[in-house]
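batch_manifest entry 22 of 60
target: Fe2OG dioxygenase domain-containing protein
source organism: Deinandra increscens subsp. villosa
requested by: lab member K.T.
priority: normal
notes from requester: please return tokens only, no post-processing; we will run our own comparison against the previous entry in this batch. if the run fails, retry once and flag.
--- input ---
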Amino acid sequence: MILNSSSAFKPEYDRKDELRAFDETKTGVKGLVDAGITEVPRMFVLATPETILNSDQQSGLPKPSLPTIDLEGINEDPIRRKEVIEKVKDALESWGFFQMVNHGIPVDILEGVKKAVSGFYEQDSEVKKQWYTRDLSEKRSRVVYNSNFDLYAAPVTNWRDTFFCTMAPNPPKPHELPAPCRDMLPEYSNRVMKLGCCLFELISEALGLDPNHLVDMGCTEGLQVLGHYYPSCPQPELTIGTPNHADNSFITILLQDHVGGLQVLYENQWTDVTPIPGALVVNAGDLLQLITNDKFVSAQHKVLTNKISSRVSVASFFSTGSNPGSKTFEPIKELLSGDNPAKYRATTVKEYVDYYLGKGLDGTSALSYFKI
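--- output ---
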């Protein structure tokens, strides 16, 4: 079934039926584009188009620029390391985001994993369908591919397809991964895990804690890698790639291609996260905001669609996701005082993520549910 926006003018339009029909194709948004649609189906249309949402920004003012932090020499030069820690602290307190260069992952690895993700989506639809599922409890679901994890919960459908796999603590065997990803995904994930441990040391020191504090807490125990695909869109002003949201992680390390479209909310203004060749984007997730008691912010961000080109990104979430675990997380006691009491109750990662996934990307913060 090809969905068409002409259904918007039919009084018998049933959103649930359209969602179900879309889901049953198991080909995602890319399937619609491959089928040759020229109008955005109604299920994707925002109540307030992006052109209107962005029109209230004062375009005459110079736009702030996301901090870029150079990690060169942080393990050799103590003075350099201290400078970088201060920059990380400032970025996570104000932006919740920064880009980083000289992070240690070679460009050929970055290019290779982007090519692997593109290769997954460029496979024949019948091959991709074997990975398509919404049942996260299936043991075979080491890799989950679908379009919109919150398809039936969110108020609007996003112009985005995704696959994700849990790469730590129990990574899949190579044969359990899609063929285009078997070589690059494990290699990239190992590199990201090493980089993540380095970043958590810097973040711990930025909080005035021992370098191993966040790693010892368990912030690096889980790693989920998501391959996002945003097809070119015939009417990009009517829909959104990913709506305004914060991440359900401690931190996220994002590799984006050259296309652009990622924006972060800074001082009530949407600011472009301009792609820098060879750079990676880091952002705080809700779980980091919770354990730092709001010292570091989990910034709202979104992804715009465009008419010119598809966009690929690879998001690495440091989180154990919905995996069972009894370990609880709460505001770090060393950061609390009489003037700064705990703002959040203790929770497991599973409880938090299950709530986040069940709520969907509805424009509200999942953190509010865990406030004291």
